[in-house]
Design goal:
It is built from 20 helices and 13 strands. By secondary structure, it is an alpha+beta fold. β4 and β5 form a beta hairpin.
């Protein structure tokens, strides 16, 4: 009759292996052996099929054939692989290649190390049976298990492929397999179960591989100890020579250690005062060092005991164009994966308070003596101020280009319109001089004409000065209530409004970011034009509207005046262009001034009219954002 423990084992495996019957005389031994089997092997989180196939492959190297036979039975469906009832068994045809696979040594291992380095780290899913990935992992695990000359390199390849946690779980499986082999060697009375005997009798090829495996080396404890003793004798002979050399090197070592300590201190002090954020992390994304500037740049200090990637994945990082980087694409992961440094890459970091800061990132991998990547060091430089200066420079260059266009646009017109009154004054002055010889002729009319020409030139020069100031003066942006601007314009133009009997209809207008003086000048010029060029005998009706549309503020001043023919609608904004000749007062700079003001606010101006006598609608836009952002946060937020 089975014990409760044996019933539990049979339920888990689907059969009761003789392996766990060996300590029946002492239940505590069986219970603890079973507990170790559960912890290290059965409940180990590695995939069940992976564990069972590895158990079979490792058991080839044990001269006792019980373990390999029993676990081949589990694989073939005589029980549950790795005690997992949901794990499907394998056909004998799929088990035979595993039993015939030779263990690579020396140079034959290098391609397998390369396969390990190409696997995702840490593995999200284990490779399929008989795949190159499984072949590489099994070969590395076997060299570690047997502690061959290649064990150290194989163990490092497993670390890179599996990550620290999965590697420790694999180490537990290896430890249990070693325990199982040793336990079977100490119990030669252990025999195969009937189901395994029947399996080997049925499948001759399977029995040949299991019972006559060339890899079944004599791995007894005594031969192992004999080898160790031989090595110790050889080491003893070398001890005296090494001791003498050690004494000579000890002094040099202490000196070098002292210099290294001083160099490390100097380096830490240098990094601490650098005007840049510096931090280091290991291959698993755990922060191992950071300076004060790093915590200031991030907006908080990391916890050096945080789980892998918890801090680095908690930061939002954006590309320079404002698009969010997924956690898997952050530059430090890229460096750890490829080993290629990141040089002068512009990024934007989002702090815990949601503010953003532009940085220039330089990240380089850290390697051990064998060239394996062990971590990375990152240097982030705050370039917010530099970005602001660069944006101001670009805006100033844009303003200079606009100013130069304005200058070339009206330079010829200015020279022409200034010369006209000068020529008039010169001609009238000559006539006046000639008349002075004949005192009988009245010169008062010529004097009046000279005064009129001089006054016109004076008004033109004043208008040109005002145009130049508007084109080149500093913009004083601020919150401006457009309704208040219109009321101020009403007061300024009150005499003309009364004289013409005008009606001004103004819909509710928004508050915008603009230069209040220039915005008033713009509205005043448009409204004054509508009042001046109204249709004779018909009182002016002026409608003013505005609102937000497509990322800009748009305004319109509509009148019922004389209108503008279509062919002149592009010319009315040119400096010194007057469609109505000298019969109407003005200098021809009013609408040109309006265009300059709109363009300086990041907008434009245009007119719509069906022709003479149909009225006109002057529309203009203003940018809805500031012309010169104060920092990068506002430009990417």
């Amino acid at each position: 009759m089975n014990t409760p423990l044996e019933n539990k084992i049979a339920t888990r495996f689907g059969v009761l292996p003789n392996f766990f019957r060996l300590a029946s005389s002492d239940p505590a031994i069986a219970e603890n052996l079973w507990g170790f089997a559960e912890f290290a092997y059965l409940d180990n989180p590695l995939p069940s099929l992976f564990k069972e196939r590895l158990f079979v492959y490792l058991s080839r190297f044990c001269d006792v054939r019980y373990c390999i036979a029993r676990h081949v039975g589990f694989l073939a469906g005589l029980g549950y692989p790795a005690g997992d009832s949901s794990c499907l068994p394998q056909k004998v045809e799929l088990i035979l290649p595993l039993l015939r696979r030779a263990l690579p040594h020396g140079d034959d291992l290098q391609p397998l190390f390369a396969i390990c380095s190409e696997l995702d780290s840490p593995l999200s899913s284990f490779p399929a049976p008989d795949s190159p990935g499984e072949l590489a992992l099994f070969a590395c695990a076997t060299h570690v298990f047997l502690q061959t000359a290649e064990a150290s390199s194989a163990h490092e390849s497993l670390r890179r492929a599996l990550g620290s946690r999965n590697l420790e779980q694999l180490n537990l499986v290896l430890a249990f397999v070693r325990t199982a082999h040793y336990w079977t060697k100490l119990h030669p009375e252990l025999v195969l179960e009937d189901d395994i005997t029947q399996l080997l009798a049925t499948h001759e090829a399977l029995a040949e591989c299991i019972l006559k495996d060339p890899e079944a080396q004599k791995d007894s404890l005594s031969s192992h100890l004999a080898g160790e003793l031989a090595s110790l004798r050889q080491l003893r002979k070398q001890h005296d020579t090494i001791s003498q050399a050690y004494q000579e090197l000890s002094v040099d070592h202490q000196y070098a250690k002292h210099n290294l300590y001083e160099s490390e201190n100097n380096l830490r002090e240098l990094v601490a005062v650098m005007p840049a954020a510096v931090y280091a992390c290991d291959r698993d994304g755990v922060i191992t060092y950071y300076n004060r500037q790093a915590s200031e740049l991030w907006g908080r200090a990391p916890n050096l005991d945080d789980p892998p990637w918890s801090f680095l994945n908690s930061r939002q990082i954006y590309r320079a164009d404002g698009t969010l980087l997924p956690p898997g694409d952050i530059p430090v992961r890229e460096v750890l994966l490829t080993g290629v440094p990141v040089v002068n890459r512009e990024l934007v970091l989002e702090r815990p308070d949601r503010t953003r800061i532009a940085v220039l990132a330089n990240i380089t991998p850290l390697r051990d003596s064998s060239g394996v990547i062990t971590g990375a060091v990152s240097i982030f430089q705050d370039i917010n101020e530099l970005k602001s200066i660069q944006q101001e420079r670009e805006a100033l260059l844009h303003e200079l280009e606009r100013s130069n266009r304005e200058l070339s646009r009206f330079s010829y017109a200015v020279s022409h319109d200034l010369q006209a009154p000068v020529r008039t004054v010169r001609t009238l002055t000559k006539l006046l001089v000639q008349r002075d010889h004949n005192s009988e002729e009245d010169s008062s009319h010529l004097v009046a004409l000279i005064e009129q020409a001089s006054g016109g030139m004076e008004r033109l020069i004043e208008s040109l000065l005002r145009y130049a100031q508007t084109s080149h003066g500093r913009l004083e942006r601020g919150q401006v209530a457009v309704d208040s601007i219109i009321e101020s314009v009403r007061m300024t133009l009150a005499p003309l409004i009364t004289e013409t009997g005008a009606q001004i209809i103004c819909k509710p207008l928004p508050v915008v970011q603009a230069d209040s003086v220039l915005l008033k000048q713009l509205f005043q010029n448009l409204i004054a034009n509508a009042l001046q060029y109204h249709r004779p005998g018909e009182p002016p009706v002026i409608e003013i509207s505005g609102g937000y549309s497509e990322d800009v503020w748009k305004f319109a001043v509509k009148d019922n005046g004389q209108g503008i023919p279509l062919k002149y609608q592009d010319q009315v904004f040119e400096p010194l262009k007057r469609l109505h000749g000298s019969e109407n007062p003005g200098t021809g700079l009013g609408l040109a001034l309006c265009r300059t003001i709109a363009e300086r606010h990041g907008g434009r101006i245009w007119v719509e009219s069906e022709g003479s006598g149909s009225g006109a609608t002057f529309s203009f836009t203003l940018s809805a954002v500031q012309e010169l952002p104060s920092n990068v946060r506002s430009s990417v937020a």
